[in-house]
Amino acid sequence: MFYTAHFGAAVLGCYLVAWVMLKSRWPATSPTVAILCWQGIGLAVGLSAIGIPISLGLAPYGRPPGTAFRILVNDLAGGRLPAELGVGHLALISVGLGIGVVLFWSTGASLRHAAKARQRQRDLLALVARADPAAPGALVLDHPSAAAYCVPGLRPRVVISAGALSLLPRDELAAVLSHEHAHAKERHDLVLLPFSALVRALPGVSWMVRAMAAVALLVEMRADDRARRLHTDELLAAALARFATAPSRVTPAGMLAAADHDIVARVRRLRAPLGPTPLAALVALASTTALAALPVALFLS
Amino acid sequence: MTRLGDLERAVMDVLWDRSGPATVREVVDALDGRDLAYTTVMTVLDRLAGKGMVGRERTGRAWSYQPVAGRDAYIAQLMLDALEMAGEKDAALVRFARSVTGDEAEVLRAALDKDKA
After folding, report:
1. Domains in chain B: boundaries
2. Which residues contact A156 (CB under 8 A, 6 or more apart)?
3. Which CATH class is domain B6-67?
4. pTM
5. What is the ipTM score, two decimals?
6. Which SUPFAM superfamilies match (chain B) (predicted)?
7. Which of A34, A68, A101, A171 fits a 20 to 30 Å CA distance from A127?
């Protein structure tokens, strides 16, 4: 029980830090630190979800989970289990290992699914997209709606529609392309991967869904900040607003009506200059590092 | 772009520009200026069939090939993916921004106007 309490404390700590981060303003000013914090939370929650049932099952050994697990493997190999280790304990250990398998499997499933969809995108783009001197480093799709996106991967593609080309002045276009290239270069798809795996593996844990949405927005902000190094804030903000308010001609209007507060948040933060990292961000980073280290240490001890 | 990718595109363009199905020979003839071997074009058409881009059927002794969908349909499909109207939430793309309507658009315009003021 002693070690289970540690895993439980890690989850509780993660929940509290996540709650504070979802309420705070500082993640918008320091998206990179916030992304690191979320990665730590994701790691701690994933490991603790495995560790809680396993440590309950290993409680009869009265040793740290790492050591107790090694003893259990030896006992199983030798065919003699301690009397106080019942079927219930073994079931709990199986549940923990099962969660580990599901996490591993759903990470793989997310990767496979994305790889297939991206291959299809690249195949189609190779056939119908064209290069255009107006959009260096990007592929152009001849379609009147405004779209700019990145197909991430080892061979990334940055794509922009003809509608976006005509919508954006040249300098705003350059800012948009910088934003997309930042996604591709920093592999932001991999930043999101652990969270889509956690959401798949822990269905019904609603704050994980909110965490994933928060990370998705932070990744956009990070890409915005990369683009800000090369272009003025006003250009990027103007491009965002132009994009978001452009009439879409491919889809029934009602389907896009889902409010997207994210864009408003991104435009707002572009109007404030980048400042130093706030103290709250550093405290959160230290906390999440400790929270991630706790279950790792328990498994290793 | 790779030479093979370039060829696939050229072959698709030939098929899209014709109204009906085409045999390998007809595609080779249409790509006259490129001086391609019959077997090269056949390989490219096989690859395209493998990717599900073209369908084929036997007419007499030769196979004839036809695009599964038009160029515009593929562009529309890519755009739907890009605008997140198709496929799953965790699908493969990272978009610049989604379109918003109504109130959100007003808030954005207001934010920008305030910026200029």
Report:
1. 6-67, 71-116
2. A150, A184, A185
3. mainly alpha
4. 0.80
5. 0.74
6. Winged helix' DNA-binding domain
7. A171
